[in-house]
Amino acid sequence: MKWAFFGKLSSTQYMLIGGDFNKRAKELLSLLAEKSESNPEVKVAVESLVEELELDRTELKNLLEYLEGKGLIEVASIGGPFLYGHVKITEKGIYKAAKLK
């Protein structure tokens, strides 16, 4: 499933793309690996990731789309307050998360 973002980003959002954005993406991937116990079949509630990482809806959407585009995660369900309900880590994501430790 592919998602596209159509719209203009604010200047604050432009600043997310770079070091801070990559750092947050790595944090999200590591947390997903932890919560799924590195099992690609386990669906993790997006809401639990948001609570632990204190992400806002726009940042979360951008991070999930980035990680999905890299093949590191898979959106497992859509819905809920954060657009995405559940996500799963892929085998590639598990490998990448292990390298981050």
Helix amount:
40-55%
* Helix and strand composition category: alpha+beta
Biggest β-sheet description: 3 strands, antiparallel
Order of helices and strands: HHEHHEEH
Spatial gap, N to C terminus: 29 Å
General shape? globular
Question: How are the strands of the largest sheet arranged?
Answer: 1-3-2
Short note summarizing the structure:
With 101 residues, the chain is α+β, with helices and mostly antiparallel strands. Helix content is 54%, strand content 14%.
Topology:
Layout: H1 11-16, H2 19-36, E1 44-45, H3 46-53, H4 57-69, E2 73-78, E3 84-89, H5 91-100
Antiparallel strand pairs: 1-3, 2-3
Helix pairs in contact: 2-4, 2-5
Your description of this structure?
The protein has 101 residues and is α+β, with helices and mostly antiparallel strands. The protein is 54% helix and 14% strand. It has helices at 11-16, 19-36, 46-53, 57-69, 91-100; strands spanning 44-45, 73-78, 84-89. The chain has a 3-stranded antiparallel beta sheet. A hairpin with a 5-residue loop joins strand 2 (73-78) and strand 3 (84-89). Helix 2 packs across helix 5.
Features:
single chain; 101 residues; alpha+beta; 3-stranded antiparallel β-sheet; disordered N terminus
